[in-house]
């Protein structure tokens, strides 16, 4: 029997809207269909380098991920205008998108067994035990 894992949702205050965002398979499919390209290509230029996606593409992903009923494209654009009027920046919006993608497992799962840089290793030679033959 297959088990289904419920994707996490991200609550976001966006202008005068309260969005509930979730990126599962259906939402990613819808976003990519509207964008006409892969979600990963949002962050890559034609030479394979990194880039920031344009705001209209971020808004398409937010609209596709939104689970709150009755939020149209026009409402998203109006909320974006209010979001900026409230003193937020497009970089904050980009960070919210990255948070959503990470929360949704878009970049893969973090390995809990990975060693951290904080583990210390001694480079000093250990004193041999007295009963050692070597």
Task: Break the fold down into its secondary structure elements and pairings.
Layout: E1 10-14, E2 17-21, H1 25-35, H2 55-65, H3 73-85, H4 90-103
Antiparallel strand pairs: 1-2
What does this structure look like?
With 134 residues, the protein is mainly α. It has one domain (10-103). The chain is built from four helices and two strands; from the N terminus they run ββαααα. α1 (25-35) runs antiparallel to α2 (55-65). The longest helix is centred in the last third of the chain and has 14 residues, at 90-103. The protein is globular. Residues 109-118 have a biased composition (Basic and acidic residues).
CA-CA gap between termini: 58 Å
Number of domains: 1
The pLDDT mean sits at 83
Secondary-structure content class:
mainly alpha
How would the global form be characterised? globular
Strand line-up of the largest beta sheet = 1-2
Give the SSE order as H and E letters. EEHHHH
Radius of gyration, rounded?
A: 23 Å
Summarize it.
Residues 124-134 have a biased composition (Acidic residues). The chain is mainly α.
How would you describe this structure in keywords?
single chain, mainly alpha, 4 helices, 2 strands, Prophage protein
